[in-house]
Write a structure and sequence with these properties.
8% of the residues lie in helices and 51% in strands. It has a single domain (2-100), classed as Nucleic acid-binding proteins (OB fold (Dihydrolipoamide Acetyltransferase, E2P), Beta Barrel). With 132 residues, it is mainly β.
Length: 132
């Protein structure tokens, strides 16, 4: 299991496959920096094409600019484009999504939607007599 943290580059899209199964597709940019031997700071951005199969409803909160923490599996792909050039990409098969900040939505709306989407292991537990 891998974890990445980055910003969504455009609003998520829901795609329906032939068997009526739905997948949420979105991309994430991860910024990193390092210093060269000469002491010069270099910026590096990696892009991941992400897929989420668990619930299509999460697409409405995955908006451009949202900072997300994703858990899942990384894979890579390569292909020859119509231009004859070799292309490659990084894919992230997402199993868990945590929101850290909102994009276009207001923060409170995003938090509310995230609560609706997140699987809570204590859902239905109404014991309000907590000792702390």
């Amino acid at each position: 299991m891998n974890t990445i943290i980055g910003r969504i580059t455009k609003n998520a899209e829901i795609n329906t496959l032939k068997n009526d199964r739905q997948v949420v597709n979105f991309s994430v940019a991860i910024n990193d920096s390092y210093k060269t031997k000469q002491g010069e700071r270099k910026e590096l951005t990696s892009y991941y094409n992400c897929s989420y199969w668990i619930s299509p409803n999460v697409a409405k909160i995955l908006t451009k600019g949202t900072l997300v923490e994703l858990s899942g599996r990384i894979s890579s792909s390569a292909w020859i484009g119509k231009d004859g050039e070799i292309h490659s990409g990084l894919n992230f098969h997402t199993s868990d999504i945590k929101l850290h900040s909102s994009g276009k939505n207001s923060e409170s709306e995003t938090k509310q939607n995230a609560k609706e989407e997140t699987k809570n292991p204590f859902a239905g537990d109404t014991d309000d007599d907590l000792p702390f």
